[in-house]
């Protein structure tokens, strides 16, 4: 494997700055506000959740100095945990490949022929991403109802005449995956186009001179070069997917019969704000954290992106 | 994936609220936080903070106009979030409203040990006020010896029917469930496509109205849940019969298909709450169901099983709740009483007042409405006094569970009978997670 050096510039320069890590420079000052916020709104609350998950709950208030595993026991004994995890798994199994394949595929296609059309299409893909989650769900409800949807004739031709057929329990993971795709794909496509634009023209020209067609270039040149982005996207998308919350919650409030504990995050919400059990809610959050971190570690170990980096040094 | 990320931020924010509370506690501020059992220092001149949803803003404004000298602060809130807001306030020791209007299920949620929000207002209420309320209405706010809310409005289910269609077809309005089911066979044969009811809302319309113990309060922490009871199985049988002959549909009451059936004038009858008349059938060009008002809508008493007294289901209605943390409880209760009983409010109230003298004033608004074949008020008032306690307001949501089990199964073509066991199990399990004892289980 010969990886062109030109694409490596960002990483080599990062490695160089790593060598002089101890001397404070402008970069550190720029980083400081981020670290403050990360501690206040990321690490701090996570530590608080960890503490609360091992605290008891007394009359709706966490009982801090009472080490107990009641919260975890409540979660693991709950009859709603199994269905929630299974719903989440079904969603992830559909949404993750759909988003990964769709985004990478569309980005490569758009990048293959750069020009006015490609730029216009890129903007078109990006537009749904500008609609925030809850709004997207409301739009989706409208789109899925054959009697009002602009795609009504298409839906009816597939034998779907009533919104209740579409929102049947078995279809929900697919519906949520579709919403996730349309909201999330545009942003990622823009990121990938950026990554693809960073590939040196010389490399692409060299490949063409060697007789590679567009397909060869996309699969054998471009794809390996943007692989780190793909792994990065996989980690973030997986973590976001297991935290599914807004779609089922909003669809339920729009009158579609969906359990209020459809996803694990919703179950955590019910613990905290309906059952007044912060201990169980924090335990649930910890469970989600373990799933998210665990998958990230697994993905990084199997793909070894960071080990490629260290070979450079 | 931005929206889930954003939502994650939101949960983190919530958690940081809890983290903040942790810091406060560690700093020894615990004593100052005011545990909810501490007596509250009262101040007869303190302003009363009212949290009002958009729907009760009108009456709050009426009150302020009538009492310019009373100090009130009004904040607009979404009521569904209220239980979580109470917990947050309990954790930080401040931030409760003094007075709020809540649906009965929310009243149940905020009166458990963890939320512990309502004040026992029995000592503040005028004598004999209870007698002025529709039978049972005042009781719905009792918890043991305490009165934890003041009932504002009622939503008894009645049998709505299209008077013109019934005349044209030459049918008699049924008075019993047996006649209702027999008529459904007739309708299925003579006029297929016409609807006689919806499974959506059927938990209240049929099961509660039959006295079926769906979630019957035995005490404040004990429920009876038994869908195998005869009062339930007879309903299940009837529903499956009528789903089979297609006079009942499992489609959603708020869906476009049902709206089309009604505007096509194919809804023959429907068991539904009193407020359906004005808010769903409507009778104005903007209405969801009937766009014209020409005396087509009529209400009949809720159905009875042969040889039994009729009972009514109930779907909605709310109450005023005073906070146990209120600095000025007397004024807060005065305001609540005014809201629930004043003639000024009654004249413009959006739904059937629980206070009878107010209801008498309110019914004149129905007189003027040309949607109704006859004023449905006597039927409403009769049904309101028959609301069955077999489906009480509880700390979880039996109606949504009915939707995710029985209703969705029926939408996929399965029978109610096949889904009812799952529903029973989920009811029992959920009741336990809401810290109820379930009798006989």
Question: Strand portion of chain B, in percent?
Answer: 5-15%
Number of strands of chain A: 2
Taking strands numbered 1, 2, ... along the chain, how are they ordered across the largest sheet of chain B? Answer: 2-1-3-14-6
Distance between the termini of chain B: 44 Å
The helix-strand sequence of chain A is: HHEEHHHHHHHHHHHHHH
Main-sheet strand order of chain A equals 1-2
Terminal-residue CA separation of chain A: 18 Å
Cα-atom Rg of chain B, whole angstroms?
23 Å
Structural class of chain A: mainly alpha
Instruction: Report the CATH C-level class of chain A.
Output: Mainly Alpha
| Helix-and-strand structural type of chain B | alpha/beta
If you compute it from the alpha carbons, what radius of gyration of chain A comes out, rounded to the nearest whole angstrom?
A: 23 Å
Return residue spans of chain A where pLDDT drops below 50 for at least 5 consecutive residues.
Answer: 1-18
CATH class of the largest domain in chain B: Alpha Beta
Number of domains of chain A: 1
- Could you give me the name of the CATH homologous superfamily of chain A? MetI-like
Tell me the helix content of chain B.
40-55%
Describe what you observe in this structure.
The complex is a heterodimer of chains A (313) and B (441). Chain A is globular, with a radius of gyration of 23 Å. In chain A, strand 1 and strand 2 (61-67) form a beta hairpin. Chain A has a two-stranded antiparallel ribbon. Chain A has one domain (80-312): MetI-like (MetI-like fold), CATH 1.10.3720.10. Chain A starts with 8 loop residues before the first helix and ends with a helix. Chain A has 16 helices and 2 strands. Chain A has 313 residues and is mostly helical. Chain B contains 18 helices and 15 strands. In chain B, the strands form 5 sheets. In chain B, strands 2-1-3-14-6 form a 5-stranded mixed sheet. Helix content of chain B is 41%, strand content 12%. Chain B has 441 residues and is α/β, with parallel strands linked by helices. Chain B has helices at residues 2-26, 30-33, 57-66, 82-92, 104-110, 163-169, 177-190, 202-207, 230-244, 256-263, 276-281, 329-341, 343-348, 356-362, 364-367, 377-384, 398-411, 416-433; strands at 48-52, 72-76, 99-103, 142-143, 146-147, 150-151, 157-162, 197-198, 216-219, 222-224, 248-249, 269-273, 297-300, 318-322, 437-439. Chain B folds into 2 domains: 38-154 and 316-366, Periplasmic binding protein-like II (D-Maltodextrin-Binding Protein, domain 2), CATH 3.40.190.10; 157-314 and 386-439, Periplasmic binding protein-like II (D-Maltodextrin-Binding Protein, domain 2, 3-Layer(aba) Sandwich), CATH 3.40.190.10. The longest helix of chain B is centred in the first third of the chain and has 25 residues, at 2-26. In chain B, helix 17 (398-411) packs antiparallel against helix 18 (416-433). Chain B starts with a helix and ends with a strand. At the A-B interface, helix 2, strand 2, helix 6, helix 8 and helix 9 of A face helix 1, helix 4, helix 10 and helix 17 of B.
């Amino acid at each position: 494997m010969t990886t062109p050096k030109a694409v490596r510039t960002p990483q080599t320069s990062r490695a160089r700055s790593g060598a002089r890590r101890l001397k404070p420079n402008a970069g550190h000052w720029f980083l400081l506000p981020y670290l403050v916020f990360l501690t206040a709104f990321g690490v701090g609350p996570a530590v608080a959740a960890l503490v609360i998950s091992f605290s008891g709950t007394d009359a709706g208030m966490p009982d801090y100095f009472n080490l107990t595993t009641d919260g975890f026991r409540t979660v693991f004994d709950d009859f709603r945990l199994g269905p929630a995890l299974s719903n989440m798994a079904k969603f992830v199994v559909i949404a993750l490949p759909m988003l990964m394949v769709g985004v990478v595929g569309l980005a490569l296609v758009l990048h293959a022929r750069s020009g006015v059309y490609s730029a216009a299409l890129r903007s078109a893909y990006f537009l749904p991403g500008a609609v925030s989650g809850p709004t997207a769900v409301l739009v989706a409800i409208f789109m899925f109802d054959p009697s009002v949807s602009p795609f009504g004739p298409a839906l009816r031709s597939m034998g779907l005449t009533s919104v209740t057929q579409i929102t049947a329990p078995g279809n929900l993971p697919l519906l949520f995956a579709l919403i996730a795709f349309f909201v999330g794909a545009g942003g990622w496509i823009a990121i990938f186009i950026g990554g693809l634009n960073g590939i040196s023209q010389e490399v692409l020209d060299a490949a063409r001179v060697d007789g590679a067609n567009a397909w060869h270039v996309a699969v054998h040149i471009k794809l390996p070069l943007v692989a780190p982005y793909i792994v990065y996207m996989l980690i973030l998308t997986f973590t976001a997917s297991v935290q599914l919350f807004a779609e089922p919650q909003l669809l339920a409030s729009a009158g579609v019969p969906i359990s209020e504990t459809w996803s694990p995050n919703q179950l955590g919400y019910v613990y905290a704000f309906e059952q007044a059990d912060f201990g169980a809610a924090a335990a649930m959050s910890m469970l989600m954290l373990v799933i998210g971190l665990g998958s990230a570690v697994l993905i990084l170990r199997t793909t070894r992106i960071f080990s490629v980096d260290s070979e450079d040094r | 994936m931005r929206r889930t990320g954003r939502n994650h931020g939101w949960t983190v924010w919530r958690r940081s609220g809890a983290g903040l509370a942790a810091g406060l506690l560690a700093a020894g501020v615990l004593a100052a936080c005011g545990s909810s059992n501490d007596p509250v220092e009262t101040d007869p001149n303190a302003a009363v903070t009212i949290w009002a949803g958009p729907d009760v803003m009108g009456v709050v404004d009426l009150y302020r106009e009538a009492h310019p000298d009373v100090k009130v602060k009004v904040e607009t809130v979404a009521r569904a979030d209220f239980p979580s807001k109470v917990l947050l306030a309990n954790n930080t020791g401040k931030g409760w409203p003094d007075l709020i209007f809540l649906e009965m299920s929310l009243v149940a949620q905020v009166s458990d040990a963890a939320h512990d929000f309502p004040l026992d207002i029995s000592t503040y209420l005028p004598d004999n006020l209870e007698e002025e309320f529709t039978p049972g209405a005042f009781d719905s706010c009792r918890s043991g010896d305490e009165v934890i809310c003041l009932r504002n409005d009622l939503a008894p289910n009645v049998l709505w029917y299209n008077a013109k269609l019934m005349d044209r077809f030459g049918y008699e309005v049924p008075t019993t469930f047996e006649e209702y089911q027999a008529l459904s066979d007739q309708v299925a044969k003579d006029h297929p496509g016409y609807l006689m009811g919806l499974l959506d809302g059927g938990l209240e319309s049929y099961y509660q109205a039959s006295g079926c113990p769906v979630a019957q309060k035995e005490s404040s922490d004990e429920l009876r849940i038994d869908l195998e009871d005869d009062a339930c199985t007879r309903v299940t049988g009837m529903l499956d019969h009528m789903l089979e002959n297609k006079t009942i549909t499992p489609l959603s009451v708020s869906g476009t298909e049902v709206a089309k059936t009604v505007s096509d004038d194919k809804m023959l009858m429907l068991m539904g709450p009193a407020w359906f008349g004005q808010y769903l059938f409507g009778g104005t060009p903007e209405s969801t169901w009937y766009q014209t008002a020409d005396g087509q809508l009529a209400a009949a008493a809720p159905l009875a099983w042969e040889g039994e007294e009729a009972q009514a289901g109930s779907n909605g209605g709310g109450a005023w709740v005073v906070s146990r943390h209120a600095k000025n409880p007397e004024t807060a209760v005065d305001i609540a009483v005014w809201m629930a009983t004043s003639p000024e409010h009654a004249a413009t109230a959006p739904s059937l007042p629980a206070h009878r003298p107010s209801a008498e004033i309110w019914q004149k608004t129905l007189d003027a409405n040309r949607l109704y074949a006859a004023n449905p008020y006597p039927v409403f008032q009769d049904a309101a006094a028959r609301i069955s306690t077999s489906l009480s307001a509880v700390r979880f949501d039996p109606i949504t569970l009915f939707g995710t089990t029985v209703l969705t199964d029926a939408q996929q073509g399965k029978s109610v009978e096949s889904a009812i066991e799952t529903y029973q199990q989920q009811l029992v399990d959920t009741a336990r997670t809401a810290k109820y004892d379930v009798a006989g289980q």
